[in-house]
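#data-curation
PF: Archiving a pair of folding outputs for the training set. Convention for this channel: one message per protein, sequence first, structure tokens after, nothing in between. First:
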Amino acid sequence: MRANRMIGQQRLTVMGCVVSLVATFSLTATGNSYLLDASYGGVDGVPNGGYTGVYKTINAALAAVPSGASAANPNLLFVNPGTYNTAATTGVSLSYSRSNVALIGMSGNADDVVFTSTLDSAYVPSGTTSTLGTTGSASLQLKGNNVSAVNITFANSTDTPYIVSTGHQTVSPTGSYNTTGQSQTASQPAVALLLQGDEQAFSNCKFLGYQDTLYTKGGRVYITNSYVSGDNDFMFANGTVVFKNSTINFDGDHSGGAMTAASTDKRTSNGLVFLNNKITGNSVHGNTVIDSQNGANVNGPGLSSMYLGRPWGWQQTGGDAGTVFINNQFLTTAIKPVGWLAWNPNETNVANGKNGGNPAEDSRYAEYGNTDVGNSSIDVSGRVSWSHQFTAGQASAYTVANIFSYEGNPQYPWYGNGYPSTDASMPGTGSANPSDPNYSWPAFWGDRNSQNDGTGNDLILNNPMSYSDPSWIVAAAWDPDAQLAAVPEPGSAVLLGLGVLICWRRARKRSR
């Protein structure tokens, strides 16, 4: 895609003079394009420089994007550098449900475009009497299908450690934390981005927060060449999400925290999947976006006492936490030898009334090929008994194409139907006979407790062809790399002699 649109002014200082540049690129798509510019001083919505409308706030810009675009020709929202507080005027989470939209940071650097807020779950908006809760704490909720974003930071600037030391009111929008009597803690949920749509893809983005940074609430999500940072349960919920060629960072302020808290539906073949990432443990003390008050620990206690995940789904009807780490490099020693954490002591209590005390019935945890800072294999001898170590053949089946294939596609029967395929390269060790009382779905993971309710539903029986992933809205396979490749990307401006030549190039390295 190329466009013939102006992208707003950029300024260069040349020999002491400020030169304004107007950059253009060519676009063959028929969808409308919009510009979000924090420094824009005109009237919102007025066509300018070829844009359908120019806006100064993210709320106004998103509201202006119409319905009716297609996956092939999405609406395009270009964003000039700036920090955009999504709750500055409303005091509530910005929820956006449009499909077929691409959000594009103009500079090519995610640090230059920041969508954020200072909301958290204990916050009570002005004029109300209820706290926002976890969902309502999100700086932004993207609920549409076929949504792409490149070169953007999604953050929650609540500054959780600062809450504990000095109180949060000084950095909050108009509202209160006192009307409900709920106190704030270091583990206050404060979501940077909530995703509740299908076919959502992100590249060269950052996701910054502490507790509950990234809420993946169903559907298929792809995050590549990006950076995700948090402190506890900071990638969570029931989406099918692939993190690839990215950096996953523990903030480390919360001792004993977990990287993930999946609640994958038992009808969903895959939950959170990590492929070829770097896992780091770096403090965000003094980060200008999420720790402007310098409340985070410089050497957080969590940097030596973290877990790969804990199964949020175990206590939910039909929940079945699915999390897999394949070929990642751990550049931190933060992970405890046991690897995984039970949600609470009740989960391993035989009389718990849910899974009979066996977390293996409501969690699908596995690893393969992960290495340490020296590229040596990680020692997994101390892992909890209810986690798995894949074989090379099983791990090889975890490709982006397989994970995001439509679950009714017979080409990938294990992913959609659960039982072993006749293809020996597909993983699966359980019975493939639907009439067998030991039949389990997905077969590789062994016996499942279908409802987590302790009422005799210890196994998922019958032919799982009757099941389907309830959050996959688009009934087709999905190629997220192709979706991202279709997003127009800005490059760099270059001065030549006395004239101005604007050169556009691909700014993002494609994953292969």
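PF: Second:
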Amino acid sequence: MLKFLERNKLRLVYLPLIIYWIVLFVATSIPGEELPSLDISDKMIHVAAYFILAVLLNFTLLLQNKYPYAKLRAYYLTIIIGVVYGALDELHQMFIPGRFAEFLDWIANVVGVLLGVFVVKMIVKQSIKSL
């Protein structure tokens, strides 16, 4: 799987990360009263959103070759970037009408990031095993 992603990283990793991050920022900028009502826990949405962000970011850092330091520390950098961005995103929502910065939302963001890194780590481990 890693070889396939490596060959197609622009289409399958880099562009999806850029598009997803823009969509995530736009989604968190929508005023509260304009948000669609979903029958899913708000915290689960945060976990899922940051899980996807972490998976895409982690693969981006792992598959890029321009910055060896980032490649070697991709898991740690993904966690740091995801946790910091999750906090900034919560603070950003304080300025959006009808939205609030919530500590538990940030915790859900962190859980999503950690799960994303864990899943990528398992995929990489499995890919290396199958070589």
